[in-house]
Amino acid sequence: MSVEVLNKEKTIDLRKKHIGPSCKIFFSHDPIKIVQAKGQYMYDEEGHRYLDCINNVAHVGHCHPDVVRAGAQQMEKLNTNTRFLHDNLVLYAQKLQATLPDKLSVCYFVNSGSEANDLALRLAWQYSGHKDIITLENAYHGHVSSLIDISPYKFHQLSDAEQKLFVHVAPSPDVYRGKYQVDHLDPATAYADAVKEIIDKVHKKGGKIAAFIAESLQSCGGQVIPPVGYFQQVAKHVHKAGGVFIADEVQVGFGRVGSNFWAFQLQGEDFVPDIVTMGKPIGNGHPMSCVVTTREVAEAFMSTGMEYFNTFGGNPVSCAIGLAVLDVIAKEDLQGNALRVGRYLTDLLEKQKEKHLLVGDIRGCGLFVGVELVRDRVKLTPATAEAQEVIYKLKEQHILLSADGPHCNVLKFKPPLCFTMEDADLVVEKIDLILTELEEAMGLKVHGTLNMEDEGGKRKLSTDENGHQYRDSSVNGKSQGVPQRNKRLKN
User: What's this model's pTM, rounded to 2 decimal places?
Assistant: First the structure.
């Protein structure tokens, strides 16, 4: 049966009529209708090609033929649930485990990152016998109720929301904008000590820690790279309290960081989480995810007497696709490409920092890179409107990029791993031109602070640009302030 081809206006009308209004889209004032994609490119209904710099779901490239073929061939043979024996399940689990430290040996397959993190909480609660969860500022772990509770990135958007009593928020280990910055003697220990302080307060109130959960690299929180040694020290404090460490790799796993297959491995070989969750890139767009844990945690979960069953998790088609994704990563050396192209991209962006005062910080690993835009490099005043302007100007140049972070001022690079040096050249060249135009329009003071007095020519942005809730430097009406600096950051 053929599907009716709609014009863009009809698609928008039907979406408004039948899709929930809280389901936001990119570029809301002029959305793009995508009808096809291949590799690192997406195509609209008029055949215009867009360079995709943000789609970390299409990990090995949109519609990769090996992945598509694997799914189609298995779908022609069989798709059923895991109560029947099937080789795809165990072969995939074996191959996935080979990328992880030995102690992480037991898999639970589910269908999304949210499902994976929800199950991880259940595992932690059962294994520890405790309830309290420590999460990070600006963290996002999923859309189901249990995860909204531990995701400040989400629950801070709710004006009438109350933080759950069992949820405790630790400072984000952000060495650029956070409490302990790059010039601190030991930011890893300082941020870890903040977690220990939370644990001590919980114990004084009679609570007990079940888990500390963190994205191995914070994505929605603004592309934050934790200082090396932070996770090791946090794990030590959490284990002493009887809890477990959950590493959320949903957005950053499977070779994206280049130097390692998993982002938590950036902390060093001596750090191994108790539970790792993964999703998004695992199936290259196919709904699949996984929780991997230790034998001890898995056996504690079994001791409840309750069977765990997931209708679609680990089905033969999903596992065939998962196997194909791992094969493509290895065959095409996509982890190596992420390392090489990521370094090249970062070097190009560092040159933009030398050239443009709007660029406050460049940070990243492999093809996970953030560009934080600021109006003042000393006060770190977020350049939120300017970040949105860059995104829309890039869209006009057929380049797709997004902005995030607590102030929505961090440009996020998370492209498919087939991204090339030529792609990096193109997008940075366009960013250079856009920033030049912006800075000329704003005017610059001699000492390097942007003159914001005349913004009359700037397009006013709505409160839901780029598919995100627009957030300034306040949360729930309370000013968060801007960290003051005693000295200017060195370029």
Answer: 0.90
